[in-house]
Amino acid sequence: MSGPVIPIHPQAERALVDDATPVGELPLQDAAAHLPHYMRAGTLQLQALPPLALYVHLPWCLRKCPYCDFNSHEWRGAESVIPEQRYVQALMADLDVALPCIWGRRIASIFIGGGTPSLFSPDAIDTLLAQVRARVSLAPDAEITLEANPGTFERDRFAAYAQAGVNRLSIGVQSFDDAKLRILGRVHDAAQARAAIEEASRVVPTFNIDLMFALPGQSLEQAVAEVQQALAYKPPHLSLYQLTLEPQTPFAKRPPEQLPDADLAADMQQAVADAAQSAGLERYEVSAYGRPGHTSRHNRNYWEFGDYLGLGAGAHSKLSFAHRIVRQTRRRQPERYMQQAMSGAAMEAEHEVARRELPFEFLLNALRLREGFNPELYTRRTGLPLSTLHPGLQQAVRLGLLHETPDRIAATPRGWELLNEVLTLFLPPAASNSREAGRIPDSTV
User: Fold this and answer.
1) Were 173 and a residue from 193, 222, 242, 345 both cysteine, which residue would form a disulfide, CB within 3.0 to 4.6 Å?
2) Is 314 helix (H, G, I), strand (E, B) or coil?
3) What is the tens place of the pLDDT at every residue in 102-146?
């Protein structure tokens, strides 16, 4: 496949990408000439770059939920409104500096997360997306998701987001029970959640509902009833998460009373999964259920070990080059991020993923998918031979945790339930003796 001609320019300039270039893998020779630092010799040999997504983090919220461990900040500024214009300018300055890392690569999806992105006005989102389009090549059918809190819902707001280019809304309902919502520290009630879902179904082609289960004092029947309420709206996509007590959160320090035990939580997981699948939603990932044509393309890119550029306070990036895979982190504090981004220093840290860590990192994502992965994808995404998986793979197959065929490696039903245990079989040697597999990330960033 012949690649596009990419201009070399020290400042932001739109990459000249041929419209015929498909979304997906790009020949490395088109990027190599412009990235001497990243393209120097290394231990990997990637044949092509994976698809690329864009994540934009809007960090402010009205009130931080006691279970939340994301980089979110309650807005307590002296001004009455969030500094939208200044933050969008910082995002674009951040993108300008990052452009040489993604020359010639088309963006397949955009996810605007937080925080509470729906605190930003439709005008600010319109400006953000317009300025992104002015700098990068965006796929004509790009999935553009915005997370929305029902507590910020206004009837015309969602329609205005759609006019700005958002074509997928992710509604953070979490529960339809007002008492449970108060325990979770949510700023909305059940009526606002229902109104937000109804409006989302009217103004965008597809939407997601986030729900939690294993809530304090929740019975198995109540958990299923919550899912049934969501299913009544015929959502194209549903995300079902177990409430977990993440380190350093208020819930971890002061756990709420009457949390379901592990056995009841496992029963809830199976029951809510059965309810969603009975309604025609396929459980295609550990926490994600979608109708045909409505699975999350952005999140699937994460799970298939694709690349993503993260912009905004605390955002993370994963970028592939010919001989290395690099991870980056932006500065976490919004004020410092805005200041540093305007001077070209939004990035706080960057490191090259060690060759020995890649098998675990790939599987941490890919085994979340029910279908698993094609062995060829492992080689394409990591630059490693399949033999680097063999010791752990053979043991997992012998234990009945993974299933292997010539064209597919996937978790068995038992392996899917014990995914953290499966992953420990693939930890790098030094790490496997010193730490656990760790938390499997949520399906949204």
Assistant:
1) 193
2) coil
3) 989 999 999 999 999 999 999 999 999 999 999 999 999 999 999
